[in-house]
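Hello, quick one for you while I still have it in my head. My current little project is about how a certain protein chain folds up. You're getting the sequence in one-letter code plus the fold written as tokens. Would you mind checking whether the tokens look sensible for this chain? Here's the protein in full, and shout if anything looks odd to you:
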Amino acid sequence: MQKAFKNRWVKTGAQAVALTALILGLVSFVGANKTVAVTVDGETQSVQAYAGTVGEMLSSADINIDADDEVSPGVDTAVADGDAITVNRNKSVDVSIDGVDRVVHTTGLTVADVLDQLNVGDAADVSNGPQLELASLSTPLQISTVKTLKLNADGKTRSIKTTEGTVGDALKSEGVKIGADDELSVAAATELKDGLKVKLVRVKTTTDTDTRTVAHGVEKNKDGDLALGKTKTVTAGKDGERTLTYTVTTRDGKEESRKLTSNKVTTKPVDAEVALGTKKPEKKEEPEKKAEPAKKDDKPDKKEDKPVKKASTGGTTASSGGVSANWKALAKCESGGNWSINTGNGYYGGLQFNRNSWIGAGGGKYAALPHQATPSQQVAVAEKLRANGGWGHWPACSSKLGLR
């Protein structure tokens, strides 16, 4: 009986050991089962597995990891119940930066993550909003970085910060107007680079006018009803006007060229008409004196008085040049004695003929204009005028000299 009791005890002890081992195994099994939160590219799921590390937990959930993926905590880290695991997969994003295409590899989730990775400032111009998820991108990400353009225009230099792609677009967005004739140091289509220097020259073409006076002439006509030596203005002269038109080109306000494009008499001058009196005064007849009878005591002189020659109104020939003293004196009064004078007033030579009088009296056979003839030739023509109209052709000086 004692032996039977002993066998029973041994059997009971063995069962107890087996039960204890079973309980301990069960506890160990239950303790190895863990539940963790796994977030992959922003999407979270609950994963329950008998795993000891992050890598085992992800593998048990069929979440494959590439070498470029970002896992936090690391795959070899021990995992505990209730832990959180984050997986950001590596992505290839097509990006165009200032017109240059490239592929960016990133574990980021949004456009903002890519911009941060590229170190692009907030002022850059981006085709998509920064909060857009990369998974939603269907076209390459267009990025224009901020560039500085140094513009020299209108007398000053300034810096323009812009995200535009060309010089022309940058100036347009800045409100810089470029005229049709203005000149840029580079083409407007030039791709904009940071620090590019550009000079803008303002070119303007304008019209300028200038007016000048056209002097009127004098037409002298003989008048038989007007006393010899007198003059009368019949029609007053009036100066005309000439208009000159120029095309003027300036560069940055400085005149570069001036071209005469028109030269017209816009107002014709009106010649003055002057009447020259040729009417000779009537001679008064003096009564004849009766000869008184000779007295007896009167005796004739031994020598008869010689008649005194009167000076010719043409004058006696001077000692030099074949010009009489009277004509020399008249020339001295009219022109200062300069027989070749031409002041541009329409009267020429020592005796101040006008062209019409000179030609009309035959002076053309000597010279085209009076001042081109010799003094004696000028006197020869003057004698013809004096024979026709007297000294009245030189009214002021002839009166001053007592020639009439």
